[in-house]
Structures are given as C-alpha cells and as structure tokens.
C-alpha cells in the first residue's frame, strides 16, 4: 500500500492548493447549510406567530369593547372561556388542557392533527369582557406546506454548498495557475540560459519578483565562483608547472651526471623545489577548503603568546626580530590554526624581504586587537598594495625578485582574516619597508 503522505507530496502545488481550498470551502459551506436548515423551521414559525399575535391583539381589543372579533388575513379567530370551552357559538377547538394553559400564558403552540392531517399553529391571550368575564382569545393558522418547505430548503442549501465548493475549487485552480505561470516560465528558462545569462524578472514587487531577483543573484554568485575556479585552476596549473619542470630537469641532470658532487648538488636543488612544491600544494588545499566554506570554530586566542611562538618557529637564522607587546595580553576571537597561519605567513614574508630587522607589535583597542609587522626592506610600491593579497600576485619590484615564494601566502592571510570579520592592510613602515596590519575582533575575557 502506498504511503498517502508520499503520494500527496508528489502532487503538483497547484493541485494541492486547489484540493485544500475545495475541501475547506465544502466543509464550511456544508456546516453553514446544516445550520441554516435547522433555522428554517423556527424562522417560518416565527413569521406565523407574528401574524397570529397581531390577529389575537386585534380580536382581544374587540372582545374588551363588547363587539364580536372579525377574521383577518385568512386567520380563524375564536373566543373561549378560561377552561378552553367555546363561547362564540362555534364547535369545540382541538386543544388540550396543556395547550390551553400555554395559550393563557401567552405562548404559541403547535397542535398536530389526527392521522396525516395538517398541523395547526395557535396563539392566544386573555381579555376581559365588559361584564368582567375572562375570555381566552385565540387564533389558528394551518401549517400547510411548512414541512415540505423545511425539507426542500435544507436540500437546496446542501446543493448550494456543494456548488459553492465546486466554484471555489475551479476559481482556485485558475487563480493558482495564473499565479504560478511566471514560475513555470522561469523553470523552463533555466536549462536554456547561456553562461552569464539571467532569468527574466516579472517586474512586480511581489514574492515572484523577489524570487526572480534572488535567483539572478544566485546565478551571479555561481558565475563569479565559476570564474574564480577557472582563474584559480589556470593559475595553479601555471604555478605548478614551474617547480615540476624544474624537478624533472634537475632529476635528468642528476641521473646523467657521473660526478658525485654534481649529483649531490642536484639532489639539494631538487629538495628545495620539492619543498616549494609542497608549500604551494598546502596553500592550494587551504584555499580550496576556504572556498568550500570550511571554517573552524572560533574561540578566544591570546595574541601575545601566539606572536612569541611564531617568532620562535622561525629559528635563529632569520633577521633580528623584536616583539613589541604594548599590552600584557590581547585576546582575539578566531581559531588557533588561523592565527598561526596568518602570523607564520606574515613573518616569513617580512623575513624574506627585511634588510636587518623585523618588529612585531601587538595592540588592543576597545573593539579590535591588532598585530603590526614592520620590516626595513624595499617596501611595496603604492600601485601594488591593492593587489598583494590576490592569489599568485607578485609585484614587479625587489620584493618579488628576491622572494622565491608561491604567491599564496598573503592570499591565505587575507582569506583567514576576512572570514572572521577582520581586516588586513598594507602600508609603509617607519623603517622604510612594508607594514602589514591585521585586525581581529576583540574577545572580552570577562564575558
């Protein structure tokens, strides 16, 4: 047996909306029809009672004035004593003692006729004759056709309810079809969209217009990601080609060399190139993970300690390095691995280009904590500062010619800082070299 919920979910949205609207309308209209059917009988009796009481009131005034009451509007008026016996010379009425008591109390009663005879509706009131005698003035009206009217009226209301539900269903089907037609056009347009194409927007300020705008924004982001991926792939292939070709050439030289010293020198060169290739691949993997949205959980990181640890990792062969911590501690909200990556790349970049010294400063502001790296190297020309964080970008100055880097270190720095809501800028150091300033959001240890 098929799962009804699964079958229902596989139906079209238009069909589901129409079915729900039709069922709800049918239920509401049928309930209203049944309620109205129950009100038809009391409504009809209320109209009859109004006519009867008007006739009784007129007849009572006649009795009180000593004149004989007259019959009006086809209603039969009788004058009885308080026991229910006639005093108007007519035959005995078909009223029981209980009926007489209700009529004296001013209540209207329905008296069923014998066998299949038509029931009669009675209303009455007590009037005082000029001689002081109490008289019960009553009026009667046969309820001919009332049962048929009530039954037929109930069936008519049920039929109208069914017809109304069908009309609601048909209207909902047409309206939802018209409302969803732009969605169908957008769906049919998607497979045929060329590269860089966009969906036609309906131009209306409703949900469909917002959907089309959001889809076009999504397509724009996909195009941007695709372009970045193509550019990244091309740049990566270009960057990988150089160390791989160098390793191959040097390996061929080493294999062909008969001199042991030459072979040893060749192996050392191959080792340098393989280390460069390994660093490049690690950078490419890190950027690929960042592009895929893999972000480690953020936690408080103490920057003064991390800076000192990064300086120790560089070793004694690097230029003279000095840590200038203007605060005893500075806590940033980031991931330890990200902070290590940022500090290692900035310090290695500064050491490659520094003439004699590198100064690392840690500052704490109200909302930000900063790490500033200054070197006394050739610096970065202003026209290159806006591109040094691009992937595989190398400035055509002394820094680029002497770096030997992969062109990914600063791009990794920018990506790691950006995804934490921070910022990194490059400028000119007071020592004449380059200054890199990284800002992270501050974490208050008291919170």
TrEMBL record:
Q: Does the keyword Metal-binding apply?
A: no
Where do the TM regions start and end?
20-40, 156-180
The record's section on PROSITE patterns has: HIS_KIN
Range of residues in the leader sequence: none
Q: Which key words tag this protein in UniProt? A: Kinase, Membrane, Phosphoprotein, Transferase, Transmembrane, Transmembrane helix, Two-component regulatory system
Record localization? Cell membrane
The Histidine kinase domain covers which part of the protein?
A: 235-444
> Which Gene Ontology MF annotations are present?
kinase activity
Q: Which InterPro entries match?
A: HATPase_C_sf, HATPase_dom, His_kinase_dom, HisK_dim/P_dom, HisK_dim/P_sf, Sig_transdc_His_kin-like_C, TCS_sensor_his_kinase
Q: Name one Pfam family in it.
A: HATPase_c
Q: Give the EC number.
A: 2.7.13.3
In which domain of life is the source organism classified? Bacteria
Q: Which SUPFAM superfamilies match?
A: ATPase domain of HSP90 chaperone/DNA topoisomerase II/histidine kinase (SSF55874), Homodimeric domain of signal transducing histidine kinase (SSF47384)
What SMART domains does the annotation carry? HATPase_c, HisKA
CDD domains, per this entry?
Answer: HisKA
Catalytic activity reported: ATP + protein L-histidine = ADP + protein N-phospho-L-histidine
Which PANTHER family does UniProt cross-reference here? SENSOR HISTIDINE KINASE TRCS, SENSOR HISTIDINE KINASE YKOH
Protein name per the record: histidine kinase
UniProt source species: Prauserella salsuginis
High-level lineage: Bacteria, Bacillati, Actinomycetota, Actinomycetes, Pseudonocardiales
């Amino acid at each position: 047996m098929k799962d009804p919920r699964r079958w229902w979910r596989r139906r079209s949205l238009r069909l589901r909306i129409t079915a729900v609207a039709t069922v709800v309308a049918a239920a509401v209209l049928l309930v209203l029809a049944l309620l109205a059917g129950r009100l038809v009988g009391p409504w009809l009796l209320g109209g009859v009672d109004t006519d009867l009481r008007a006739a009784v009131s007129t007849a009572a005034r006649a009795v009180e004035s000593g004149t004989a009451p007259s019959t009006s509007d086809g209603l039969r008026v009788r004058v009885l004593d308080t026991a229910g016996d006639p005093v108007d010379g007519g035959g005995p009425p078909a009223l029981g003692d209980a009926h007489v008591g209700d009529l004296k109390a001013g209540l209207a009663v329905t008296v069923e006729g014998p066998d299949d005879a038509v029931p009669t509706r009675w209303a009455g009131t007590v009037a005082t004759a000029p001689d002081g005698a109490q008289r019960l003035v009553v009026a009667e009206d046969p309820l001919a056709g009332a049962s048929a009217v009530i039954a037929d009226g109930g069936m008519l209301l049920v039929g109208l309810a069914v017809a109304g539900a069908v009309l609601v269903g048909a209207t909902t089907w047409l309206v939802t079809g018209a409302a969803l037609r732009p969605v169908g056009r957008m769906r049919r347009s998607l497979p045929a969209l060329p590269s860089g194409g966009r969906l036609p927007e309906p131009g209306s300020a409703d949900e469909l217009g917002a959907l089309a705008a959001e889809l076009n924004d999504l397509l724009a982001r996909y195009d941007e990601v695709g372009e970045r991926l193509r550019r990244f792939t091309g740049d990566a292939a270009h960057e990988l080609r150089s160390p791989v070709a160098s390793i191959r050439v040097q390996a061929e030289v080493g294999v062909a060399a008969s001199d042991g010293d030459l072979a040893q020198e060749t192996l050392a060169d191959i080792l340098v190139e393989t280390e460069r290739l390994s660093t490049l691949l690690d950078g490419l993997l890190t950027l690929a993970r960042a592009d895929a949205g893999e972000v480690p959980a953020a936690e408080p990181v103490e920057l003064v300690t991390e800076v000192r640890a990064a300086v120790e990792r560089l070793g004694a062969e690097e230029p003279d390095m000095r840590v200038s911590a203007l605060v005893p501690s500075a806590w940033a909200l980031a991931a330890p691995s990200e902070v290590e990556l940022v500090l290692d790349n900035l310090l290695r970049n500064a050491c490659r280009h520094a003439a004699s010294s590198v100064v690392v400063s840690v500052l704490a502001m109200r909302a930000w904590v900063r790490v500033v790296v200054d070197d006394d190297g050739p610096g970065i020309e202003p026209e290159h500062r806006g591109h040094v964080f691009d992937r595989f970008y190398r400035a055509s100055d002394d820094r680029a010619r002497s770096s030997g880097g992969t062109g990914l270190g600063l791009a990794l720095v920018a990506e790691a800082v950006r995804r934490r809501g921070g910022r990194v800028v490059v400028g000119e150091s007071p020592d004449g070299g380059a200054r890199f300033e990284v800002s992270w959001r501050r974490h208050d240890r008291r919170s």
